[in-house]
Amino acid sequence: MSYSARFECFAGCGESYPLNEVVYRCKKCGSLLEVVHDVAELKKKSAEEWKKLFEDRTRKNVWPYGSGIWGKKELVCPEVDNENIVSLLEGHTNLFWAERFGHKLGLNDLWIKLCGNSHSGSFKDLGMTVLVSMVKQMIAEGKDIRAIACASTGDTSAALAAYCAAAGIRSIVFLPKNKVSIAQLIQPIANNSLVLSLDTDFDGCMKVVQEVTADQHIYLANSMNSLRIEGQKTVAFEIVQQFDWEVPDIVIIPGGNLGNVSALGKGFLMMQELGLINKLPKIVVAQAAQANPLYLSYQTGFKEFAPVTAKKTLASAIQIGNPVSVDKAIKVLKQFDGQVEEASEEELANAAAMGDKYGLFNCPHTGVALAALIKMVDRGEIKQNDKVVVVSTAHGLKFTEFKKDYHTGALKGIDNKYANLPIDLPAKTESVKKAIYDHLDNE
């Protein structure tokens, strides 16, 4: 069978472009683009045949199908030749049953999709493998692309740098100066990126990178490029496959630039169209209260949307006041009985620490999603037997300063109620035993 995909105007004006064209917005109306597949061709294979194919490829070593993304190549990006795929065997991340955490909240079926258990430590790997592979394909076809660039609050730049290093393509990253963690800054440096530290915030970096990539020799890698969405939508595929093709009731995901929200919805909708699933989950987007334009729009029933000036937040990767993918996100939320929640700095910090207490190791952005979960449980909007998945977007090891500051009380204005500090003792057995039993007796 011959599978194919193309760019189409998201606003529906009828324009379309091949995936190997350097284009990010509709040339006719200026709307974002989306990747559209030849679904009629895909439907020639039955749902059961697709399921069997995906199961047979999972975690196998036949190139490139062992990847969680490229194991579903026909549904993601059939336009790339296998020899041009740049993969670090991303995907297939843990779906962790947070049993004790769930029981503490009064839930029987709470799961955490650990997307941070990936090569560069975040879900951004899922989309970057598709985008960099497509650029490698275009270069092989003769296009004069000299570098790939992105604006980033940390995770996108890490993923771009890693995949470009593997592909032998120059990467350029625009970071807001002094607004990313050391761990996030060092990743593109280590992977030989050209790192540009700009005296602005993410939205300012995004403005500059769009102007720079108007030069077609430098390809844009931010999520306004819908190739990224094709990889990220496999989070939905994996969740359902890991549940033996059962759909959860509720999925909660942090939202910044909002490409991940539209990707998640696109994945579920595609599976429904192909008959792999027969219902859709409720999707909840969680935003930091310091950067909450989608939440404010939700309060109006999405009748209005206005960018905000994002304030400093511990959830730095979603410190975005003017999200590029807002129209796509709103469309998805309307299709999925969607909801938007916000979390204060104290709520997200304590929620992340609470999750850690029960076996997780959360990034602050996952803390935002967990805070939304806790609020919805407290309001009775999530019931005891609902099957709930929280999408954890990055690994906690990228945010050790945040965790250290939380437990030492260095986060100003936050009551760190789950703080857990070492106990300084002399190296004497009796002193140690007394400290141990005093602690155990007081639990």
Secondary-structure blueprint:
Layout: E1 5-9, E2 16-17, E3 33-37, H1 39-42, H2 47-57, H3 73-76, E4 95-97, H4 99-105, E5 110-114, H5 124-140, E6 147-151, H6 155-167, E7 170-176, H7 182-190, E8 194-198, H8 202-212, E9 218-220, H9 227-232, H10 234-242, E10 250-254, H11 259-273, E11 282-288, H12 293-299, H13 326-335, E12 339-343, H14 345-357, H15 364-378, E13 388-392, H16 400-408, H17 429-441
Parallel strand pairs: 5-13, 6-7, 6-9, 7-8, 10-11, 10-13, 11-12
Antiparallel strand pairs: 1-2, 1-3, 4-5
Explain what the structure shows.
By secondary structure, the protein is an alpha/beta fold. It has a domain at 95-119 and 229-408: Rossmann fold (3-Layer(aba) Sandwich), CATH 3.40.50. It contains 17 helices and 13 strands. It has a six-stranded mixed beta sheet with strand order 4-5-13-10-11-12, sandwiched between helices. The protein has a four-stranded parallel beta sheet with strand order 8-7-6-9, sandwiched between helices. It has a three-stranded antiparallel beta sheet with strand order 2-1-3. Helix 10 (234-242) packs across helix 11 (259-273) and helix 14 packs across helix 15 (364-378). The radius of gyration is 22 Å and the shape is globular.
Count of helical stretches: 17
Mean pLDDT: 96
C-alpha Rg (nearest Å) = 22 Å
Helix content: 25-40%
Major beta sheet summary: 6 strands, mixed
Reading the helices and strands in chain order gives EEEHHHEHEHEHEHEHEHHEHEHHEHHEHH
CATH architecture assignment name of one domain: 3-Layer(aba) Sandwich
